[in-house]
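Q: Can someone sanity-check these two? First one:
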Amino acid sequence: MQDLILAVSYWLHSVAAVIWIGGITFILFIAIPASRQVLGTEAGRLMGEISKRFTPLANYCIILLVITGILMTGLNKQFSGVETFKNNWTLILAVKHIFVLGMIIIHFYRGLILTPMIGRTESANKKASLQKLSLNLIKVNFCLGMLVLLFSGFIAVF
């Protein structure tokens, strides 16, 4: 039974990671450039609608990643305990979790603080500056997501 729980946890964890990191990749490299090219100054409206649909999905993925991550870690024979780095696997996992925590903080900062701030801002210059910050944070999250995937590969080897 434990093997079944572990297998399903790995599967759900992978699905959630693909949806979240894949969504960031799609938004950054496809949706934003295409909407700017086709809609020009109206691109923000489309991206707002995409964000309204993607953000709740990303939120559920984050919850699923945390739950399955806890299950997978607890059931893994390599795990040597919190704050005990007795092997490379646990050390790599800790670094990966730092990257994941950064992604989660950026995600919720953008959604709960930055996006409403952009919506309330009346000054065109201030709004453009906040939108640039938001885009840069998406880029940071993409890079962190790539590092998370890289470290997941390292974990699979150790």
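And here is the second, same format, sequence then tokens:
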Amino acid sequence: MKTETRSDRENGEVQIIKNKEKGMQVELKRVDDAFHFEATGLSGVSVHIDGAADIGGHNAGARPMELLLMGLGGCTAIDVILILKKQRQRVDDLQISVSGERVKIEDTQMTPFRKINVHFKFKGNITEAKAEKAIELSMEKYCSATAQLTPSAEITHTYEVDFAE
């Protein structure tokens, strides 16, 4: 299977995906006559997607742009937990809040994210320095969702640590 991206074509490069580990695929199946879809990935887990009620949706699933933020939050959460475990930090709880500012592109209906903030709330026996380092490693080295969104959105992070022995 051959996959090209605009930036690859502009650089004269074409990426060839040779196995499923480097590629990804999801399937969407329409659930009703409105905008409700059930999406399933290679993991076999289903996610429901729907449009807002004001356009005829039934609020039966997440909005597509919410899923982008959820994906970013989930990607960095997994990285951060793995890194902190390797640093022998005890994470009792981690809550992440991801917020995004959208800007309308002139002469279109598109309103992509231009600014995204990921806020981490840690609870456990974690030093602030280790929390900060884990977040930085995730955002700068490991999280593919961050890499995907960074060219079009400024991604920042904030955090707080509720230290518990």
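A (reply): Looked at the second one. The chain has four helices and eight strands. The domain at 64-163 is CATH 3.30.300.20 (GMP Synthetase; Chain A, domain 3).
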